[in-house]
Design a protein that fits this description.
Residues 1-28 form the signal peptide. This is Alginate lyase domain-containing protein. Keywords: Signal. Helices cover 33% and strands 25% of the residues. It is α+β, with helices and mostly antiparallel strands. It folds into two domains: 3-325, Alpha/alpha barrel (Glycosyltransferase); 337-427 and 468-582. It has a 15-stranded mixed sheet that branches. A two-stranded antiparallel sheet has the order 1-2. The longest helix has 21 residues, at 35-55. The chain starts with a helix and ends with a strand.
Length: 583
């Protein structure tokens, strides 16, 4: 490892070389160190270490957790500015964790992490193992020589398996490639480089607007962006940096004022959760330095100022690549007033300073009508925030043959601030089979009806349909939003569900039978957190209509009830209902 790294580990540097930020740079540019940033990640790591020491022998930890715990301890041990620098009390815990990394490794070089003998899951751990080895090797202490030998053995054993094994998901390709890039950097093997090029030759799964195929901020932040940056740096592939730049540009428009990242359009598990922007810290720093984009500086500095999340995990990256700690370019305002339309995922983000909204019509449900990991099936089609008052979801469910929630088949822009969502559901009644398809034994093919399966040879039967067409027009108006619901087709009941985040106060609504359930039957209700408020209404009658998640969920006892304070408005089709949401 270059002397620059050894010097940096002592904590004595005041400048860093920036050449590695652009793999093709002919010579390094010298820049001042951002001392505030270094202090932040140093202190964050210092706080992590006692927690690790208190539970490092947890036998239920996955190998990925074992590797991350070791990374936290090693970062403090080698870093000259850490209060744990060369602290002998860390050696035994580090040694135990390193031994676990070796003991849990199969003879084929892979680990079990839920999936058995898994190349991608092993790659997550091996990236940290490579970092452990590199940091300890640069530190060069005799006390860690046996640990380094063990880590080297783990890496050399895993490398061929990663270079020959397969993956499950799009992001796994980049995780495996990044692990191979690290292994090749430490212990060169042409098989590793060839496999990286094989995966890269498939093309990076990003739309022109910068959204990866999984549409997940979780995987963009934790896997794809960091891995592409690692490959770009270690394999001299500067073109990869532009994919990360474009994804971070999208992220600017998905950010909420409190540091959360909108995940409504995701095809992965975060489509129903919350992701925080702290995961992106070193990505925003690196791209700010590389592109000189002051907006990225603003977001990086906002993460640092907020100080939440496991920021100590970034210390290892900074020790490996000191250039990440350089003083950032001058900050420029990040976008806070916009209407941003993403046709590739049929979504819209609107922000007016501390007020944001999301409109979403891009589920995969109309092309692939199943519920599965890797598909976008989130029935939330609208979200709204007014400061601390957060409406986490608006959903609609008609009582229509147990077909479930309204999920829009796309999104159409009607004007600068108006968007239409629509869905048509057709449910068949099946007529007798034509004579040429009838069987005397009555044993017909097991086929899908659209909601269920039966030995009825549904595909050959003529049908009579019952139809329900729903349109929701979302319009930004003065002081909030109008959601106009239009229903055509059969007569039935429906419920609109507004789910507010727990922690606020509801008024103007009636409590229902279950905790967290309320109904607005008339007039206007409100949800208040401190001085922030969202008003909603009017109510449309007292009839209680349950939300029906659909037979795909109820058959197995599933649920789509979101966490929070749920307010229901009801009505009947056909007809129209206007829901006004005001600040």
């Amino acid at each position: 490892m270059p002397m620059l790294r050894r010097t940096f580990l002592t904590g004595s540097l005041t400048t860093v070389a920036l050449g590695a930020l652009h793999p093709a740079a002919a010579r390094a540019e010298v820049a001042a160190v951002d001392e505030d940033f270094l202090t932040l990640v140093t202190e964050a790591n210092r706080k992590q270490i006692p927690i690790v020491l208190g539970n490092f022998q947890n036998v239920s930890d996955s190998v990925r957790t074992v590797a991350r715990k070791a990374r936290r301890l090693v970062s403090g041990y080698v870093w000259g500015r850490s209060s744990y620098h060369h602290d002998a009390t860390l050696l035994e815990p580090i040694g135990w964790l390193v031994d676990q990394l070796a003991a849990r490794q199969h003879e084929d070089g892979l680990y079990d992490v839920g999936n058995l003998h898994s190349p991608p899951d092993s790659a997550f751990a091996i990236q940290d193992v490579c970092l452990l080895y590199a940091l300890l090797d640069a530190d060069g202490q005799a006390e860690t020589a046996s640990m380094r030998a063990t880590l080297a053995s783990v890496i050399k054993k895993a490398g061929p398996a990663l270079a020959s094994g397969g993956v499950h998901t799009p992001n796994h390709r980049w995780e495996v490639s990044a692990a191979l890039a690290r292994a090749h950097h430490l212990f060169p093997d042409r098989r590793y480089a060839a496999r990286i090029d094989d995966w890269l030759d498939e093309g990076i799964d990003a739309t022109p607007d910068g959204i990866y195929s999984e549409r997940s901020s979780t995987y963009a932040a934790e896997v794809t962006n960091p891995c592409l940056l690692t490959i770009a740096w270690l394999r001299n592939k500067p073109a990869l940096l532009d994919y990360v730049r474009r994804n971070l540009d999208v992220t600017l428009y998905l950010l909420e004022p409190n540091g959360e990242v909108d995940t409504t359009a995701s095809r992965r598990q975060d489509q129903k959760g919350v992701r925080e922007v702290w995961w992106y810290l070193t990505q925003f720093r690196e791209l700010a330095l590389h592109t000189r984009d002051g907006r990225f500086t603003t977001i990086a500095k906002s993460i640092e100022a907020r100080g939440t999340g496991e920021l100590g995990d970034f210390l290892a990256e900074v020790l490996e690549r000191p250039e990440l700690s350089a003083v950032l370019p001058a900050a420029a305002p990040a976008p806070t007033n916009f209407v941003q339309h993403y046709p590739s995922q049929a979504s819209v983000r609107i922000r007016r300073d501390t007020r944001t909204a999301t409109v979403f019509g891009g589920t995969d449900f109309h092309d692939l009508p199943v519920i599965s990991s890797g598909l976008s099936t989130n029935p939330t089609f609208f979200k709204l925030r007014n400061g601390a008052a957060i409406l986490d979801s608006v959903r609609l469910s008609p009582q229509f043959f147990s077909t479930g929630h309204f999920r829009s088949d796309g999104l159409r822009r009607l004007g600068a601030n108006s968007f239409r969502l629509s869905q048509e559901v057709k449910v068949p009644y099946h007529l007798p089979l034509p004579k040429r398809y009838r069987r005397s034994d009555g044993l017909y093919a097991l086929t899908p009806d659209g909601r269920f399966y039966a030995s009825m040879d549904f595909g050959h039967r003529p049908k009579q349909y019952r139809t329900l067409r729903t349109e929701v027009t979302v319009t930004e108006v003065g002081g909030g939003y109008d959601l106009a619901f239009e229903f055509a087709g059969d007569e039935t009941a429906y419920a609109i569900e507004l789910c507010f985040r727990a922690g606020g106060t509801l008024s103007g609504v009636d409590a229902l039978d279950a905790a967290g359930n309320y109904q607005l039957t008339a007039g206007t209700g409100s949800y208040t957190v401190g001085t922030d408020r969202i008003e909603f209404g009017p109510g449309n009658g007292a009839a209680r209509v349950a939300m029906d998640p659909g037979e795909r969920y109820t058959y197995l006892g599933g649920s789509l009830t979101p966490d929070g304070l749920r307010v229901y408005l009801t009505g009947r089709t056909p007809g129209r209902q206007l829901l006004k949401l005001r600040y």
